[in-house]
Amino acid sequence: MFYALGLFAFDMPTLLFADLERDRTWRHPETETFGGLPSTQYVGPGTDTIFLGGMLVPEICGTYSSIEKLAAMAEAGDAYPLVRGDGKILGNFIIRRLNEKHANMLDNGKARSVEFTLDLARVPDA
Description:
The chain is mainly β. Helices cover 10% and strands 53% of the residues. The protein is built from 1 helix and 9 strands, in the order E-E-E-E-E-E-H-E-E-E. A 7-stranded antiparallel sheet has the order 2-1-7-8-9-6-3. Strands 4-5 form a two-stranded antiparallel sheet. Strand 7 (80-84) and strand 8 form a beta hairpin.
């Protein structure tokens, strides 16, 4: 297993992603001061967003139904634990966006390849 989002495992039979981008922020609100730099105070973590990007090529790796499974998970609106292959839990994430680009169309209307990007946002642990 490469990664898992809830019970969805990213691997050869389902869907592999080629790259992972993570953007984390921390909150430091500012208060204006007279004649000097604003003062700041650390108030906690901010957003934690992960973008997974890859390509589905059913003849080689992955299935169309895997994309639909992720869309159904997003539609449910639930948060899912994101777990790395070595067992490290990165937190609970919601699916904010699933972008697909279908290419190399066959005569039956199916794409020979589908590029995808999955946008995940961390939510507080329940």
